[in-house]
Amino acid sequence: MTVTTDLVADFVRAANRLPQVSAQERQRLLERGLTVSGAMRGLLLETGKLAPFDEALERVVDDIARNIIEMSDETVSKALLALAGQIRTLRILNREPPANRTPNGANAI
After folding, report:
1. Residue 47 has what pLDDT?
2. Taxonomically, which superkingdom (predicted)?
3. Mind giving me the DSSP string for 34-87?
4. What does the alpha-carbon distance between residue 7 and residue 37 come to, in Å, rounded to a whole number?
């Protein structure tokens, strides 16, 4: 498995056993997910690919991480699964070749 696949698996495992995961570990996982998501989005931009950006998700997950003590298990679990999905999507997009573009910026047929 790749590092990214391992990370996604860690998020899913943590979401499924959340009562056993400490608040500090929950916060660390969420912050790590935000960092990885941002880095993968940056890599997409560097390679000339369109990078999806869900500003609302990023903002909500950041808020959850900062206020982890007050958050319900369900809220944290949903945030972990949302990050796992986003990172998985970004990994897939990073593996795809960039679209063929003509000099005027249009897609080649």
Report:
1. 84
2. Bacteria
3. HHHHHHHHHHHHHTT------HHHHHHHHHHHHTGGGS-HHHHHHHHHHHHHHH
4. 11
Does residue 89 form part of some domain? yes
Tally the domains of the chain. Answer: 1
In terms of Cβ atoms closer than 10 Å to its own Cβ (0-12, 13-18, 19+), residue 104 is exposed
Domain that holds residue 89: 3-95
- Measure the CA–CA gap between 31 and 23, rounded to whole angstroms: 12
What number is the average pLDDT over the span 67-73? 96
Please indicate, yes or no, if residue 108 is contained in any of the structural domains. Answer: no
Q: Considering the domain boundaries, does residue 106 fall inside one? A: no
Q: Which of 102, 58, 106 is nearest to 82 (CA)?
A: 58
Establish if 109 belongs to a structural domain. Answer: no
Dump pLDDT digits (tens) for 41-67: 888 888 888 777 777 888 999 999 999
